[in-house]
């Protein structure tokens, strides 16, 4: 228990690492919420993270002379554009061919992971120059101008990613709750046929919502690459796409819940890593604990939101008839 606590909040480094993980999960879950509002399920966060990481690395390792004010926005914009385009493949198949977005986004995860393997192993693409047999199959480090600034906490790897993710969460909440686009997405998600009869562009809204979900997941990939060690390597996404999917499902459309659950799982993931290192606990045990926590959160959400059965109304009073008059009262 001590190792778990130390890995979560025991040091400034642990807190910073947890915040970075939470920021990634928050972006993926926010994108899932946008697509889900339109009745779509984005299971492709992992592949979209891979696409965003590749694009961010390609830009961040080539813009060598530009200042940070130009390089960093270009890196993040490239990551978001790549993630949006990656999800746009599944969105186009959904609106034009009627193919289930669940299947296509899931299959694109494997393609995205394979592309990461390709670009980090192929010297003609993004692999760092091979100087010896011990050179790792990974990209060259991003230029200093392409790296995310730190928050300034002492001995902490926390970056501005957490503020960026919170800003995105607020913007998504406003979009879904306070804008015309949010109302239209909700109408499409509730009944696409009725929305089409009302004149709403159902296909366009679905295409844009799933592409926006991919853009946010791609942005998460850019944040992962822009954080130490600032390289693209195989397995860099660490399953954040699927964890963000779980966060989105648990949040049930509430961006406040997205932020809260992302922070909770972010600290739990960091604590679990320290638990494996310090106490020698197997990774499977940590996964079981995380799964149990998710089940408990889901059960609590179901219990608090399920409709209550109305209490039965009391029976009406029986009026006094002639037979209820006492015998000696006549």
From TrEMBL:
* Positions of region (Disordered): 308-330
What spans are recorded as compositionally biased (Pro residues)? 310-320
**Compartment annotation:** Cell membrane
Which Pfam families does the UniProt record give? BPD_transp_2 (PF02653)
Q: How does it sit in the membrane?
A: Multi-pass membrane protein
Keywords of the record: Cell membrane, Membrane, Transmembrane, Transmembrane helix
**Protein name according to UniProt:** ABC transporter permease
Source organism's superkingdom? Bacteria
Membrane-crossing residue ranges in chain numbering: 12-35, 74-95, 102-120, 158-176, 207-225, 257-277, 283-303
Annotated InterPro entries: ABC_transp_permease (IPR001851)
- CDD domains assigned: TM_PBP1_transp_TpRbsC_like
The yes or no answer to whether the keyword Membrane is present is yes
Keyword Ribonucleoprotein in the entry? The reply is: no
Q: Where is the composition biased (Low complexity)?
A: 321-330
């Amino acid at each position: 228990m001590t190792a778990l606590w130390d890995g979560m909040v025991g040091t400034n480094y642990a807190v910073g690492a947890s915040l970075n993980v939470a920021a990634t999960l928050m972006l993926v879950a926010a994108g899932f919420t946008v697509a889900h509002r339109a009745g779509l399920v984005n299971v492709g966060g992992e592949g979209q993270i891979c696409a965003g990481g590749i694009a961010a690395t390609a830009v961040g390792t080539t813009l060598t002379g530009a200042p940070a004010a130009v390089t960093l926005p270009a890196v993040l914009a490239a990551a978001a554009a790549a993630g949006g385009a990656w999800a746009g493949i599944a969105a186009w198949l959904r609106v034009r061919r009627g193919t289930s977005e669940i299947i296509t986004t899931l299959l694109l995860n494997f393609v995205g992971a394979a592309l990461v393997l390709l670009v980090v192993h192929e010297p003609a693409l993004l692999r760092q120059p091979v100087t010896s047999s011990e050179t790792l199959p990974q990209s060259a480090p991003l230029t200093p101008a392409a790296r995310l600034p730190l928050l300034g906490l002492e001995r902490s790897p926390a970056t501005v990613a957490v503020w960026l993710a919170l800003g995105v969460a607020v913007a998504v909440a406003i979009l879904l709750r306070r804008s015309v686009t949010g109302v239209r997405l909700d109408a499409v998600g509730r009944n696409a046929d009725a929305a089409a009869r009302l004149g709403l562009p159902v296909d366009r809204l679905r295409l844009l919502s799933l592409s926006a979900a991919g853009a946010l997941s791609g942005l998460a990939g850019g944040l992962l690459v822009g954080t130490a060690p600032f390289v693209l390597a195989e397995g860099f996404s660490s399953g954040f796409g699927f964890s963000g999917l779980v966060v989105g499902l648990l949040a049930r459309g509430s961006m406040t819940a997205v932020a809260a659950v992302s922070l909770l799982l972010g600290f739990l993931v960091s604590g679990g890593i320290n638990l494996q290192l310090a106490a020698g606990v197997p990774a499977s045990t940590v996964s079981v604990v995380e799964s149990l926590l998710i089940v408990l959160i889901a059960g609590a959400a179901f219990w608090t939101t399920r409709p209550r059965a109305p209490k039965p109304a009391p029976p009406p009073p029986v009026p006094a008839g002639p037979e209820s008059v006492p015998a000696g009262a006549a």
